[in-house]
Structure formats: structure tokens, C-alpha cells
Structure to design on (769 residues):
């Protein structure tokens, strides 16, 4: 009974809300996957825009004036965190003069805190490259992580906009239902990829590899954040040999220069594959679902 | 049981790090299963993950002798992580809080050093009509340490944040620790407002508030050297308001003590200078963005020194300085690392009205308009290499012949400099730079060759646009 009554009140609230665009939650995300997720969960109640697009490396973004003015107006800032945006996010937050979205406030959500992280370094020494002390931040590679973030994000939308709480909860339920079904499909499709070995440009695919049972032999970068050098590529060539030593893929992000992976592919015969790391990272990856469709398609197609 | 296989693989990799792990036992694995059943009722959302780990651990016991113990530890950790923070839904964390790499406060040190070769003696460097004040002037000949800068910063509480920059410098045969910046800033003001209190670089212009390690050349452009003593920095109050508009619009106002060039003597009972600034900017497509600004600095001076430090000129009067700044940045699809181009230009115009006392003579009235500009472009075609070119120039009224023979007499010769720069950055934290400057500003052509290094350790700073 109470429940019916409650949903009636909420429905009334929704109807009321529909007329006032100002009641929408304005979400600023650092990466496109979180904007896509916020839209999946919040539907029309959420206006979500990402600071970066799928062809941009989220490590290296300029703290542009346009981004500062967007943070100024945001109700919720959603970023991967784990130091992925260390070079620019604090500058945006510092200049935007918006106390509601500072770390520690309900208006700031660090997605990586919601998932178990990999690659947590035993010690942090920059001689090992630009280490992320909190672990590898590229958590969106595993769709199970997206589900975990979805729950945290829905909670946050409820906190910030309690009037539409039911809408966010049903948005979450509907998303998780479709998402779990999709995961089962992907896992089924990707069975032939299990145990395949690969070389990655940067350690952006660690979570994807863990999910699909792929084994990363090496990275094109000699150290995280240091671009590929000819000396390091020569070492990789020696390791892989001219027959590729059984490695199945050389994968790179959409925003990395193809030079290094194509050179190594040319020498070893291992196919070089561009994998979108987020929504918009390829023409097919238009939302979270097609993102993983495309990743798995690309790997299956390139499989030797 | 695909899950098992790949987790076993992953655990196998991780286990290499855990050489100390002891042999597992079947009872331990069983105990874990039991514990899991209890947790299941409360934490349905986490159970799948735990089971996967446990399954993997079982699989791994057959493959490797030491993984189950690790898995036990994994499960125990995972359980502990779930048990603690899941209670508070408003907290950002339901698994673990990402640790910061900073202590509280965060700390960083920036190392800068250089070597310069000049054709003319830099000790005699002076631009006729533009006696330098503040920190302006060429770097020492030969090897020298520039500032070694210690940065300490942290949030004070929920409403304030604080920043300290302490350069350690070697000057006049002495090592000194200076306070370059020391300010606190509000975090919680409404309506897009923030207020900063303390010693800070003024918000005027574009490069004025940039620390020397983020300059694109080893030195400041000539108009900044001539009109701002390199950079205007003072004690006071800074206010910024960011308009709630779709495009970027920031209004800034500052009130300073007025004790540093181009101000001096802390006039008006220690409220000697003030500024106003207006900034706007935006994007043009995904590859281009821009920032433009207008600023005004009004400074009153009492016995403000400039020129030769041993026999300074003293200025009493009012300075008005106007700066127009423009910055354009390009990078392919906004991918800064892959390549980028930055164009930057500023025009500075100043009027000084008052009186100068020159070389022990009586003070003479002075009213002069001067201007200067620079243009520079930085191109980064590859991830680690940047190439830059800069041109700077000064100009202004030619004073009456009464000033002839004094450092204030400007002969109207358009002092200018041309600089070329190449730098290589192995990572974000290191940079090696070569700079060549052809400098005719002090009357004779001077070929200047410089090498510079900039390294930083500790806190990873974010960069402004």
C-alpha cells in the first residue's frame, strides 16, 4: 500500500519536474563512459556531458576555459579517478568555484573507488614510469566494473535528486538487467579469445584482459607514460621474433599513434588492432553496449 | 568454468609477487566457502566476485602450490573492504578508497638550473629608457642554479585550501629561503566566487601568474621584464568570480600592499595597488581552444627603485598598466600528447606619471607612455619534443632632452629580441631545454645561448590552460 502511495507521489513529482528543466541533474564527467552510464540511468532527468571524447587520451587534457565553465554549472562530477586525471581535474575544480562538486561532497564521484583495482604498485617510484599509486585506472575495460559503478552512480543521483529517486532506481534495474544479459553474450562470444597473448600500447586494457582471459606479454611503451622508443621496439621484436611467437594481437587505444604498433605488426606478422577504450572510440562504439560489441568484434575479426 | 581459468591465470601472475606464501590446505578453502555463505545474505552484489576468486583459488591449488593462500588473503581483503565502507552510501567508496600519492600536505620540489653564454657582458645589460625593477634581467653567465622551489599545499578544512611556494636561491653569496607564494583560498563560497588571501602572483595578463618552471622559454618576454619586474607578485587579497554562463567568463579584482615592482613603498597606508581583469575563452571544434583577457593594474609608488641596484632610480607617482592577452591552442582531436601547437601574444601598455630622482639629482617630473608586446608559438610535433619561436619588442614616447644621458632616456630604437627554443621532456616531470636569443635590446646585438633543465619530484601538479 505504502509503496503504491509512494510511487504515486513520485509520479506526481516527476510530472511536476518535467516542466522545470532546472531540476535536472547536470552531470559533468571526465570520460565518455560515465556520461553514457549517467544517461542510461537517469534518462531525461540527467544532462550528462563528458569533458573528453573517445579519441582523446584522458591522461593529457588541457584544463580548458570551456571545461572550467562546465564544472562551474555541474551538480555532479563523475570521474574515473585513481589519478587518471591528475594533470587537469584539480585545476578545473580549483578554478570552477563550485563547492558542490569538490572531492568529499555528494556532487563528486570517483568511479574507480567503486571497483577492485588491479596493478596496485608495491612501491611508487617514478623511475618505473608515471605510476598510479591507487592502481590501474582504466577500470572501464571490464563490464562487470561498469555494473559496480552503475550502482554507486545511481545512489548518488538519488542523493542529489531525491524527488526522482524511483526513476533512478528503475533506471538502474533496467540497465543492470540488460547489461548482465549483454555480458553473458559477450563472454560467450569471446570464448575463443581466452588465453590469447598480446602486446598493448599502454596498460589501458588490463581490466579487459582480465575479463576476457587475455594475456599481456608487454607494452609498446617502455614505461607507463613514456612513448615507445626504437630501442624498446627492437627489444620487443627480439622477444616476439619475425613469426610473432604465437602472440595474437598488438592492441592500441584510438588516441595513440598507430606508428609503433604498425611497425611491430609489420615485422612480426601479428595483427595490429585498434580497440576503442570508451564510447566514441570507434564509429561503432556509440554507447556502452556497442562499445563492448565492437571490442569483441574487432578482436574476433583480427584473430589469427 | 571459464571464469576459473582466467582468474587462475591472473592469480598465477600475482602470486609471483607472493613468494612467501605457504602451502594451502583444503580446509582453508572450505572455511572460506562457509564464510562466503554468511556474507552472501548481506552482500549479494559482491558475492559473484568472491566466488570467482575462490573458484580460481581452488583451480590454482592444482596448478601452483601457493595460490590458494593468496586467494584466501584476497577473499579476506575483499570481505574486509566490503564490510567497512559499504555502510555509508554517501561516501564515494564501497570497495576501497583510492589513496593519494601525497602526504597531507602534498609536497613537491622543482629543480632548475641553467648555463648561459653571452657575447656581451650580461652584468652591463640595460635597455635605454626601460630601467628594470624587481627580478628582471638576464641569467648569470655560465652555470647557475635558478630557483629550487619547494611547493607545499593542502586543504585546510572544508572551507579553505592553502598553498606555499618557497624558492631556495643563492644570491649575493648567500643562500636564502624566500616566500614566493603563501596564500589561503576559499573553497565554499557560493555563486561562483572565491577569495584568496596572502602573497600571490597577480592574476593580470597570461604569463604573470605562471611559475618559472612552466614558462615556455627560460625567461620572461621583454615587456614583462620591463613593466612588471618579470612578474607582479605582492601581498593582498584576490577575488575571482566565474559567471554562470555557457561560455567561460571570469572577472577578477585584487587589492595589494603595493610593495613590489611595478608598485613600491606600500603607499596609501599599505593598500598601494589594485587590479581588475576579465577573461573569456572557449573551444572551436574539438581541436582548437582559446583564451583572451584584459587586465588593468593601478599602482602607486613611493621611492620605487629600478635600474642599477647600487644606484637606483627612485620613482614617486602612479603607474597604470593595461594588458591584452590572447592564447590559441591546437591539438589533433584535443589529444595534447600526440602533438600540439600554441600561439600566445600579449600587448602591454603603461603610463607612468609622477617624478623620478636620477643619480642623486633633484627629482624631475615624468609623464610617459610606453608599450611592449611579444608573440610566441610553440609546436610539439612529437610526444617529447617541442620547438618554439618568440619575438618581443618595446617602444614608447621619447622623453625630452632633459633626460638625455639618464637610464630613462629612450632613443626610440625599438628594443627587440628573437628567441628560438627546443626542449625535450622524457616524462611530464623532466625537461631539458636549449634556447638561442638574438637580443638587440641593449643597443648592440648579443647572441645568447642557454641550456636549462627543469625537474620535479613529489606532488604531481596540474597545469592551467
Amino acid at each position: 500500500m505504502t509503496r503504491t502511495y509512494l510511487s504515486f507521489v513520485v509520479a506526481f513529482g516527476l510530472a511536476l519536474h518535467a516542466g522545470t528543466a532546472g531540476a535536472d541533474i547536470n552531470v559533468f564527467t571526465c570520460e565518455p563512459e560515465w556520461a553514457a552510464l549517467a544517461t542510461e540511468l537517469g534518462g531525461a532527468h540527467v544532462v550528462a556531458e563528458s569533458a573528453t571524447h573517445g579519441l582523446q587520451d584522458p591522461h593529457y587534457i588541457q584544463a580548458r576555459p570551456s571545461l572550467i565553465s562546465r564544472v562551474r554549472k555541474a551538480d555532479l562530477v563523475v570521474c574515473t579517478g585513481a589519478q587518471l586525471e591528475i594533470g587537469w581535474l584539480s585545476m578545473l575544480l580549483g578554478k570552477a568555484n563550485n563547492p558542490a562538486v569538490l572531492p568529499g561532497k555528494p556532487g563528486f564521484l570517483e568511479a574507480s573507488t567503486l571497483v577492485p583495482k588491479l596493478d596496485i604498485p608495491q612501491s611508487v617510484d617514478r623511475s618505473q614510469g608515471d605510476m598510479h599509486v591507487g592502481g590501474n585506472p582504466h577500470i572501464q575495460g571490464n563490464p562487470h566494473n561498469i555494473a559496480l559503478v552503475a550502482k554507486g552512480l545511481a545512489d548518488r543521483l538519488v542523493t542529489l535528486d531525491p524527488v526522482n529517486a524511483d526513476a533512478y532506481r528503475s533506471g538502474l534495474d533496467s540497465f543492470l538487467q540488460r547489461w548482465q544479459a549483454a555480458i553473458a553474450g559477450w563472454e560467450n562470444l569471446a570464448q575463443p579469445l581466452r588465453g590469447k597473448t598480446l602486446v598493448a600500447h599502454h596498460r589501458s586494457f588490463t581490466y579487459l584482459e582480465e575479463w576476457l582471459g587475455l594475456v599481456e606479454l608487454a607494452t609498446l611503451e617502455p614505461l607507463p607514460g613514456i612513448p615507445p622508443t626504437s630501442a624498446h621496439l627492437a627489444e620487443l621484436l627480439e622477444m616476439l621474433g619475425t613469426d610473432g611467437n604465437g602472440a595474437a594481437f598488438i592492441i592500441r587505444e584510438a588516441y595513440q599513434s598507430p606508428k609503433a604498433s604498425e611497425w611491430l605488426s609489420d615485422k612480426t606478422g601479428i595483427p595490429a588492432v585498434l580497440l576503442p577504450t570508451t564510447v566514441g572510440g570507434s564509429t561503432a562504439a556509440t554507447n556502452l553496449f556497442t562499445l563492448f560489441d565492437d571490442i569483441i568484434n574487432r578482436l574476433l575479426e583480427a584473430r589469427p | 568454468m571459464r571464469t576459473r581459468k582466467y582468474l587462475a591465470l591472473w592469480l598465477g601472475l600475482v602470486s609471483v609477487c607472493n613468494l612467501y606464501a605457504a602451502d594451502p590446505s583444503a580446509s582453508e578453502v572450505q572455511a572460506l566457502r562457509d564464510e562466503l555463505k554468511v556474507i552472501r545474505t548481506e552482500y549479494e552484489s559482491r558475492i559473484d566476485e568472491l566466488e570467482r576468486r575462490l573458484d580460481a583459488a581452488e583451480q590454482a591449488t592444482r596448478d601452483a602450490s601457493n595460490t590458494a593462500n593468496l586467494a584466501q588473503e584476497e577473499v579476506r581483503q575483499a570481505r574486509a573492504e566490503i564490510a567497512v565502507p559499504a555502510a555509508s552510501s554517501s561516501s564515494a567508496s564501497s570497495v576501497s578508497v583510492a589513496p593519494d600519492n601525497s602526504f597531507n600536505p602534498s609536497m613537491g620540489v622543482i629543480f632548475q638550473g641553467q648555463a648561459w653564454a653571452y657575447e656581451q657582458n650580461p652584468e652591463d645589460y640595460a635597455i635605454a629608457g626601460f630601467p628594470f625593477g624587481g627580478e628582471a634581467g638576464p641569467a648569470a653567465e655560465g652555470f647557475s642554479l635558478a630557483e629550487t622551489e619547494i611547493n607545499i599545499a593542502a586543504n585546510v578544512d572544508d572551507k579553505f585550501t592553502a598553498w606555499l611556494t618557497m624558492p631556495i636561491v643563492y644570491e649575493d653569496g648567500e643562500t636564502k629561503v624566500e616566500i614566493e607564494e603563501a596564500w589561503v583560498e576559499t573553497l565554499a563560497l557560493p555563486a561562483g566566487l572565491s577569495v584568496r588571501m596572502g602573497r600571490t602572483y597577480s592574476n593580470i595578463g597570461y604569463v604573470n601568474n605562471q611559475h618559472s618552471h612552466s614558462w615556455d622559454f627560460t625567461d620572461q618576454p621583454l615587456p614583462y621584464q620591463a613593466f612588471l619586474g618579470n612578474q607582479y607578485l605582492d601581498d593582498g587579497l584576490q577575488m575571482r568570480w566565474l559567471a554562470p554562463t555557457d561560455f567561460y567568463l571570469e572577472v577578477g579584482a585584487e587589492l595589494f600592499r603595493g610593495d613590489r615592482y611595478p608598485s613600491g613603498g606600500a603607499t596609501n597606508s599599505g593598500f598601494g595597488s589594485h587590479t581588475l581583469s576579465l577573461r573569456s575563452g572557449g573551444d572551436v571544434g574539438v581541436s582548437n581552444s582559446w583564451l583572451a583577457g584584459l587586465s588593468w593594474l593601478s599602482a602607486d609608488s613611493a621611492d620605487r627603485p629600478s635600474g642599477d641596484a647600487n644606484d637606483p632610480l627612485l620613482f614617486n607617482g602612479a603607474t597604470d598598466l593595461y594588458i591584452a592577452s590572447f592564447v590559441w591552442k591546437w591539438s589533433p582531436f584535443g589529444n595534447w600528447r600526440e602533438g600540439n601547437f600554441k600561439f600566445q601574444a600579449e600587448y602591454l601598455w603603461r603610463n607612468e606619471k609622477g617624478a623620478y630622482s636620477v643619480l642623486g639629482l633633484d627629482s624631475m617630473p615624468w609623464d610617459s607612455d610606453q608599450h611592449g608586446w611579444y608573440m610566441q608559438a610553440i609546436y610539439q610535433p612529437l610526444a617529447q619534443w617541442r620547438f618554439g619561436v618568440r619575438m618581443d619588442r618595446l617602444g614608447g614616447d621619447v622623453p625630452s632632452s632633459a633626460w638625455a644621458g639618464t637610464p630613462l632616456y629612450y632613443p626610440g630604437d625599438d628594443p627587440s629580441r628573437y628567441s628560438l627554443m627546443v626542449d625535450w621532456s622524457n616524462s611530464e616531470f623532466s625537461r631539458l631545454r636549449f634556447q638561442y636569443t638574438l637580443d638587440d635590446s641593449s643597443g648592440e646585438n648579443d647572441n645568447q645561448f642557454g641550456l636549462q633543465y627543469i625537474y620535479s619530484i613529489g606532488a604531481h601538479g596540474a597545469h592551467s590552460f
About this structure: The longest helix of chain B spans residues 44-63. The two ends of chain B are 50 Å apart (CA to CA). Chain B has two domains: 2-87, 106-458.
